[in-house]
Design brief:
Elements (H helix, E strand, L loop, with lengths): L6 H11 L3 E2 L11 H17 L3 E3 L22 E2 L4 H4 L9
Parallel strand pairs: 1-2
Antiparallel strand pairs: 2-3
């Protein structure tokens, strides 16, 4: 059974289990417009506040979007992933809107 949990619940669980979170939504998610960036910003802010590391297997050509794992090699290592809160997030920087 699949359960939907909120970002704060996911981050709280990761913190409790002392693990990081794999960011892996893929470049297609960018097609969802500003709502996409708001969700990514929310994840990054909550994770940073809880000191939970975010990881990606690979970053897309745009240099920011974590790739979806479907077509990636099983041998790729986890690498730290960050979101530039100061320049891209409308909730953190109103000028980015």
């Amino acid at each position: 059974m699949q359960q939907n949990i909120s970002v704060p619940q996911l981050i709280a669980l990761a913190k409790q289990e002392r693990v990081g979170v794999l960011a892996s939504w893929g470049a297609v998610a960018r097609d969802h417009g500003p709502h996409y960036e708001d969700q990514v910003c929310h994840l990054a802010v909550v994770a940073a506040g809880a000191e939970v590391p975010l990881y990606a297997l690979k970053v897309a050509k745009d240099g920011a979007t974590p790739c979806h794992p479907l077509m990636l090699s099983y041998s790729l290592p986890l690498t730290p992933w960050t979101w530039d809160l100061k320049t891209t997030c409308r909730c953190c920087n109103p000028r980015a809107a």
